[in-house]
Amino acid sequence: MVDVQVTIYELESPHHVSRRNLLVDELIEAHLEVARSMALRYRNRGIDLDDLEQVALLGLTKAAHRFDPDAGHAFMSFAVPTIRGELRRHFRDCGWMVRPPRRVQELQARIGQAQDELLAILGHAPRPSELAAHLDVDVSDVVEALSVDGCFAPSTLDAPVGDSASAFCDRLGADDRAYDAAEASVMLEPAVRNLSARDRRIVYLRFYEERSQQEIGEAVGLTQAQVSRVLTRILKDIRNVLGGQLPVA
Q1: Sign of the Cα pseudo-torsion (135, 138, 139, 142, in order)
Q2: How far apart are the C-alpha atoms of 8 and 65, rounded to whole Å?
Q3: Does 139 or 186 have the greater pLDDT score?
Q4: 121 alpha carbon, distance to own chain's centre
Q5: pLDDT value at 30 more than 80
Q6: Where do the RNA polymerase sigma-70 region domain residues begin and end (predicted)?
């Protein structure tokens, strides 16, 4: 293959523009798999892999057009940060479903670039204090930005929790029906207390034992029609006490 890195910027005259474009295309084609492998590292973060590959290839194209071999760097050392920057920028602008404050997003992007720079200088992954000093920000801000790294989309409720077989949704609380029953008891007690003994018995048989009107009539010595009228009156009296808060039966 032609040594693209040596010759690409030797072709600056108009006569050689087409040759230069050909060498740029060749440089891109030679590193397509590198761009795709970098996109693969960012999968499962809420953006389709196809979209990530397109963004990575865009970064590779920009790197090929901007690369200057006279700067003394290999193409890969120039292309990788460019591709990574395009991917992170895409996540910052398009990838957030769980969206932190803008300042946190921007600081996270700066941290990503600073991590690469400090890794080359220090020879180890930089600590939050070293990142804070390099970026001239508070350590607490760095810690906050690092804590949301990768939080581009909410986790599925079906995801397993730790090493257990149970999912996260299995541990979520549910509405306790006892609260509704307790609230109804508190609200109804004063209204029911004012009823006669017979009316309280009818209410008990109808709404606690869930007996039919025919069965209630047989228990208290009334006809079914009389039980129906008594229940209508009782519910009306209770609604008046509750200020109309009881729904119509």
Answers
A1: negative
A2: 10
A3: 139
A4: 35
A5: yes
A6: 27-94, 109-180, 193-239
